[in-house]
Amino acid sequence: MAGVGIIGTIIIGLLAGWLAERFTRSNHGLLTNLILGVVGAVVFGWVVRHLGFFPYGWIANLVGGTIGAVVLIWLYRQLRR
């Protein structure tokens, strides 16, 4: 995640996982949602940068991470079926 560093990425990912859990009304457990949040934040940031967008700052990364985590939670649900 551009501009926030590794600690910022972890914090944003944790918040994104928690927000994604609330948006999707899932209850996979705290650890699963937090991992999905961190991975979603990193993956979404990478994809967006490769598409030519550069989300700098905490808010842009939090929104992107939440979107990434929601997508990952959706994929997780599909694979668990």
From TrEMBL:
Q: Where are the transmembrane segments?
A: 6-23, 30-48, 54-76
Name its cellular compartments. Answer: Cell membrane
Q: Which organism is it from?
A: Pleomorphomonas carboxyditropha
Q: Cellular component GO terms, alphabetically?
A: plasma membrane
UniProt protein name: GlsB/YeaQ/YmgE family stress response membrane protein
Alphabetical UniProt keywords:
Cell membrane, Membrane, Transmembrane, Transmembrane helix
Query: Which membrane topology term applies here?
Result: Multi-pass membrane protein
Task: List the Pfam families hit by this protein, alphabetically.
Answer: Transgly_assoc
PANTHER family under this entry? UPF0410 PROTEIN YMGE (PTHR33884)
Q: Chief subcellular site?
A: membrane
Q: Which InterPro entries match?
A: Transgly_assoc
Family membership noted in the UniProt record: Belongs to the UPF0410 family.
